[in-house]
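Shipment paperwork, digital attachment
Item: protein structure file
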Amino acid sequence: MALSLAVSPCPNDTFVFHALIHGLVPGAPPVDLTFADVDVTNTAAENGAFDLVKVSYAALPWLLDDYELLPCGGALGRGCGPLVLSREPRDLTGATVAVPGDRTTAYLLFRLWAAGQPPARIEVVPFHQIMPGVADGRYDAGLVIHEARFTYQRYGLTALADLGEWWEKDTGLPIPLGAILAKKGTVDPAAATEWIRESLRQGWLDPTASQEFILANAQEMEPAVVKQHIELYVNEFTLDLGEDGLAAAHALLGRAAAAGLTPPVDCRLQGNRRGAKRSRQAQ
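Attachment content:
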């Protein structure tokens, strides 16, 4: 039977999962692929729609009854956090802010950061509409992720805050953005972990093999930005969350629960931790 997989069309996901999607991982089942933005997969996972799915760490409190958190394949790191953008420096009190999803890690970080300057209105907006919407005045500010950190100046925008920088300074931990979940009773988490790690290893060993697939799904990103995106979001935490990665997830969700923003949750790490370490000299 085919394995239903939902990830974003962003370059980090297409790089990591290229070999698995294309039947190049020995022993892995065929894959039925769905591309969707993370706000869509957060909701779909709550309905049990996929066997393997990329979701926001912020959505885990609503998902871990039905899914297992895997120790690989996700998006964590340093220097890669969401940005709060506006046309000029300003306080956000009373502002209208566009965000990419109400259960995204970006929005959860924003709520923690903006506690002292609460906006008047939050609008959930497709990611690609946020920067143009702020630039033309539809929104006072916007919360953006991923490649926007490389392109926001083109819209004449300024960064009010780098939430990853704020998070790292406050906690000393990497920022936990996206997680990979395996559906309980459907997918063996240890097997899924090895499939994903093998897919990633193949990507690192021969980056050219996935290039056409990545560029075809990169939502009109230019090759130089695609390269920056992959280098930033595909890192040692993609291969193995490790102690720091798991501590980051616990810190984020612990703070959110203490602030009354999410239900309390214990992120237990599933899957096979063995064999995660490797040299990345092939990158």
